[in-house]
Amino acid sequence: MSLLHVDIASAGYGPVTVLHDIAFEVKTSGRLVALGANGAGKTTVLRTISGLTQAQGSITLDGVELVGLTPHRIAAAGVSHVPQGRGTFGDLTVKENLLIGGNRRPWRTVLAEADAWMERFPRLGERSSRPASGLSGGEQQLLAIARALMAAPRLLLLDEPSLGLAPKITTDLFATLDELGRESDTAMLLVEQNAQVALGIAEDALVIESGRITVRGPAADLRDNDDVRRAYLGV
Amino acid sequence: MLLQQVADGIATGAIYGALALAIVLVYRASRTLNFAQGELALLGAYVSWQLTVWGLPLWAALVLSMAILAALSAAMERTLVRPLVKRHQALPLIIVTLGMMIALNAVIGWAWTYQTKEVPALFGGGALDLGEIAVSRQDIGIAVTVLAVALGLGVLFEFTRMGLRMRAAVSAPESAELSGISTGRTMTIGWAIAGAVGALAGTLIAPELFLHPGMMAPVLIYAFAAATLGGLDSPVGALLGGVAVGVVENLAGSYLPHGSDFKQVVALLIIVIVLLVRPQGMLGRREVVRV
To answer: Which residues 6+ apart lie within 8 Å of B70 measured at CB?
Structure first.
């Protein structure tokens, strides 16, 4: 069973077309990682799903057409997007950041869940009433993921969560992500340059080059494929 | 004498602060200065006056006028402002609000003539004797009303879900959209509140300045000075800035030679000094540009 069907002829920003003939699916509760070099179009794939680009084609979530909807309606349909750079509401408090994530759900539930997140990650709890801009990069990434999950989404989009983080922190973050993924039935679509860690937590993978999908298959196969490693992943 | 001048400055300052608050709410919503804010407040004062002529009690006229101006301001945002904000047309946007200022003023002059009208004071006449100084009931009423409205807005922004959404939309618009917040809607609400607060400012100051189409032009300059001083994106700063400008204006009028002729120069001077020394104002957020 697939949750997300992407089948777009082109997508981009104004006159600039970034993606060509992109088609793939994300299984219900599945985890797909999109790999590729800088500028290959990975971020644009996520931004297209969220309605932040102009796209020709069809993207459906549980049968609901997303192309043409505004970003806040796509979010309401069940897509949570952690943008590149984390999208932290820097001058709002840590707790408010969490509450915003759940702003469309019943307030009582949201308050309780925000408390649960802060209990689970004491670093967030200790700073609950401080501006979120004071958090470290890794803490902000954790906050962004928690914020996105506060919406109880069907699909979580993650744009380069490892960006700007030290290797040790990246490893911890992906372990947490893996854990969170197992606990809920939220599907994940993860975009990464750091192939090693990303393939470690994904089921399926694809490689994007110059706006097109060039390789796809189970994550384990890509990890073991020497050609893929040399040609696309640089490891 | 000095104390009396300060006390007198606080009430007018509260009104400057209210208009500055309207300017700040619009700036936060759309990142633009609404030069028509003064004329919207003027229209609010005329609507209040017209409704009292038709027999409504002044307070009811004020509330109705605030509602009407909220709707009008929201409509202005949706029709004239939004398309330009979407296309990042900052300069045309300012020209549009300047055009609205002139157009609104002309319409008001056409509808109500250029003759001065008398607006009754909302809080009646008379003064309270507070030892060394005497403060008019109207001035106390103005200060209390503006404070109450400010507190109400503070509660809205800090303690309600709508307020949280509005602050989120200002803080990081794209993240807000991705969190399911309609930033278009929060913008419109910001303009609506600004329209209502402006109508309040206009109606409160009308008894003092007498209602005529030129009434709000100088007030707008003081309000801009207040908003600049307080920080263009800080509602609290706008109110404090308003009080500061009101007091300084009053002192300048009394103590400087030819002071009453130079009152507006004082306001402009405040704008220039703040922009040179501390561009983000007292409480504003510094714009950080990442390269």
So the answer is: B192, B193, B195, B196, B199
